[in-house]
Amino acid sequence: MADSGKKRLVEAITPMDEDFAKWYTDIVKKAELIDYSSVRGCMYIRPYGYAIWENIQRILDGMFKETGHENVYLPMLIPESLLNKEKEHVEGFAPEVAWVTMGGSEKLEERLCVRPTSETLFCELYSHIIHSYRDLPKLYNQWCSVVRWEKTTRPFLRTLEFLWQEGHTMHETAEEAKEETERMLNIYAEFCEKYLAIPVIKGRKTDKEKFAGAEATYSIEALMHDGKALQSGTSHYFGDGFARAFGIQFTGRDNTLQYPYQTSWGVTTRLIGAIIMVHGDDSGLVLPPKIAPTQLIIIPVAAHKPGVVDKAKELEARLKKEFRVKADYSDNSPGWKYAEYEMKGVPLRLEIGPRDIENNRCILVRRDNREKIEVSLDELEAKVRETLDDVQQSLFDKAKERRDNMTYTCTDLNTFIETAQNKPGFIKAMWCGDVECENKLKELAGVTSRNIPFEQEHLSDTCVCCGKPAKHMVYWGKAY
Amino acid sequence: MADSGKKRLVEAITPMDEDFAKWYTDIVKKAELIDYSSVRGCMYIRPYGYAIWENIQRILDGMFKETGHENVYLPMLIPESLLNKEKEHVEGFAPEVAWVTMGGSEKLEERLCVRPTSETLFCELYSHIIHSYRDLPKLYNQWCSVVRWEKTTRPFLRTLEFLWQEGHTMHETAEEAKEETERMLNIYAEFCEKYLAIPVIKGRKTDKEKFAGAEATYSIEALMHDGKALQSGTSHYFGDGFARAFGIQFTGRDNTLQYPYQTSWGVTTRLIGAIIMVHGDDSGLVLPPKIAPTQLIIIPVAAHKPGVVDKAKELEARLKKEFRVKADYSDNSPGWKYAEYEMKGVPLRLEIGPRDIENNRCILVRRDNREKIEVSLDELEAKVRETLDDVQQSLFDKAKERRDNMTYTCTDLNTFIETAQNKPGFIKAMWCGDVECENKLKELAGVTSRNIPFEQEHLSDTCVCCGKPAKHMVYWGKAY
């Protein structure tokens, strides 16, 4: 019984090595993270998927507030004339926005786009409320959804509508704005590494890859199981470009009128895609304990035997005081349940049966490496705490080791092309700074620049593409 | 100095009795709850306004989860064909939706509306995931914004886009669905009374006033300072109408295919409008402590004198352990600060100056009745706790007393019309159940039925309008 139940679920997933894309979509569906909708390119985020997002929100929101940020809510519709105010920005976004042209049965005089991002609205608001240097900095953030009219979509990774947060800040000096840009990138990196157990590369995007209207874009880049990169968070420095376009001015300390300096930064539900593709395996999702909606699942074994369910409920009540715990008392077989919660990536499983009760013990089973641990009920909390911490750390270490093993150094063009074509992963290589070389590497090797990492290494003196003097070391790769 | 600062702010509000609508918009602007945007009918919710919404969300979300509900996220765009599936529903909403007709530069084959509410999407999702009675109940909720193309708008009360939560549940039996409808109405009523200090009337809407597509709509109705009613939350019972339209079927306990029974329920940012119009006064906002972003503001007096700021910071650190506290160390005068935090409705002000420090005391000033309380620093926490509780209760009592004083009983048509025209407030009167009488009372007296309260009273035997036998007692009034 147990085995047949297990097989039924496990067989349903395409193995990762057979078809990575199919493996991914199997997991998002079978772990009940999402369901497909009849709205093209949009998904239904189901309770289990949304609970992960709620944990992401709760933790990040706390980090934002600790650093002085406040939440606001701005309209989802942007008049075309407002979007048009900053030239580079509108050129970047206009081709991919959804346009509202009718209200009820009336044709609108001016069409409105569903926000693809809200720089323009924040600028309008800031133009109303920033008058003096005393009004600065303004450190606002918004949790909402945005729409971008993408051609091809994939759950969490690229959807027409997605959930995100967008921070938009205004500062008295360029220096302060640059510090903020970096501060938020560091918060994203800390969040990914500490909570999602995903190691990231922090760095600056090349001009070709930066955000429409930004002076500089910074990103954190993570490596997925299949060797493709995922941009997992971005932070932009705008200088005073938008402020000038929107006429935002303040009276400075020296009594002159000045333009403030601006940043924006965001992460999205993509992060859930990253969790799947960094930690998942052929049995399903593997969730880091710090972000898992359920950290431990209790499964009574031989539940019909006297005392088993009572004991399970007693342990549930004990553990709920400290951990996010669920118990499954349904009449499915234990094996069926094991497979179900493995699919859902619950970090720890607690098995308790008649013989365990006799011996005042239970069995803990780790989702990540399937290790079974016999634990005395007297030290249950301590052992669960310790094991969850260890799972969290192991997931990070394993992901980092894999990323490092999949990161290659290339110093000449032929090796670069050969590596890009045969070895999935990051390539570190020197670059002269010319967009022509970026275009050429894309064309010849199929990779794009991921970022110019803050932690530079001197791999050689010359650009891997053109042989001219190198300016930076760059991470290259195929990307989602 | 103090007085001139105070005047500057206070003079800026239109007194409530002079022009209630202007008083309201003055407060939302000057308490920095919102700012107007160039998007017609939409507003910018500023940090102070959004913090109130965050408190509402946090508390309600906790109440929803305690009663077994889970959060999800569904698309903001609904294909026209999906909206059209339930006839009454589309007739109710189609005239007031915003239509997306272009994606990028491409005209869409099928236009999409920005969700005005999400029954249709929830039904599509439920049709995919409900197969057996074991899958029921499904108790989902969503926090999001919706768009309704309103002609005239007012901040928080009626805007093109507004924030809300929408619960959508599916049940095995009609009985269970009806219980859910009532359970959620009770949660809304409890929330309004306990947290917002707003007394409400629970009851059923007449057929004329019910939600498009519902079998029954229940509401909670509150009375504003100007005697107008505000529908503050609704809960709908749908029967199996949508389930039939969307083909949602499950295998029942008896192995037959059945249609599930549905509810939906929601509250919106309107609640912030209710807080303003129930508790506010001519000095600005008055916030109930349980919902106030800042429960206590510390203002050092003669802050340049040695030791004052240090002492204020010491008290701030002490009080922050238990309360939502801020302190204002800016160089504005105390009087200016008093006016500012009165405008923002902070429930308690703590003043501390050199003489207070000498005497190991401080002064607490209540926002609601301006009472000054001298408090020994040794019992500060206890006194703050007690005073906040008392403010919370006083606000509710005062609002209830006012509502009761503004509620009139009418048993004949002439008195009804005269009362409606001259006495702002609720009218209780008997009704025969015919929509013709509802229409006539609207025409003659300018009021609509608010709801048929659960707590019925027998005021007379006959309908106040037509004199035929009465079926129900109804609350009538002018409404926002």
From TrEMBL, chains A, B:
Q: Where is the Aminoacyl-transfer RNA synthetases class-II family profile domain?
A: 19-288
Q: Output a single Gene Ontology CC term carried by this record.
A: aminoacyl-tRNA synthetase multienzyme complex
Pfam families for this protein: HGTP_anticodon, ProRS-C_1, tRNA-synt_2b
Q: Which GO terms describe its molecular function?
A: ATP binding; catalytic activity, acting on a protein; proline-tRNA ligase activity; transferase activity
Q: Which SMART domains match?
A: ProRS-C_1
Statement: the UniProt record of this protein carries the keyword Aminoacyl-tRNA synthetase: yes
Provide the protein's localization: Cytoplasm
The EC code for this enzyme is 6.1.1.15
**What processes in GO biological process is this protein linked to?**
prolyl-tRNA aminoacylation
Q: Which InterPro entries match?
A: aa-tRNA-synt_IIb, aa-tRNA-synth_II, aa-tRNA-synth_II/BPL/LPL, Anticodon-bd, Anticodon-bd_dom_sf, Pro-tRNA-ligase_IIa, Pro-tRNA-ligase_IIa_arc-type, Pro-tRNA_ligase_II_C
Q: What class of enzyme is it?
A: ligase
Chief location of this protein within or outside the cell: cytoplasm
Q: Nuclease: is it a keyword of this entry?
A: no
Query: Could you tell me which Gene3D superfamilies the record lists for this protein?
Result: Anticodon-binding domain, Bira Bifunctional Protein, Domain 2, C-terminal domain of ProRS
Keyword annotations: Aminoacyl-tRNA synthetase, ATP-binding, Cytoplasm, Ligase, Nucleotide-binding, Protein biosynthesis
Q: Which reaction does it catalyse?
A: tRNA(Pro) + L-proline + ATP = L-prolyl-tRNA(Pro) + AMP + diphosphate
The record's note on its domains: Consists of three domains: the N-terminal catalytic domain, the anticodon-binding domain and the C-terminal extension.
As for family, the record states: Belongs to the class-II aminoacyl-tRNA synthetase family. ProS type 3 subfamily.
Q: What does this protein do?
A: Catalyzes the attachment of proline to tRNA(Pro) in a two-step reaction: proline is first activated by ATP to form Pro-AMP and then transferred to the acceptor end of tRNA(Pro).
Quaternary structure per UniProt? Homodimer.
Name the record gives this protein: Proline--tRNA ligase
What would be the name of the gene that encodes this protein? proS
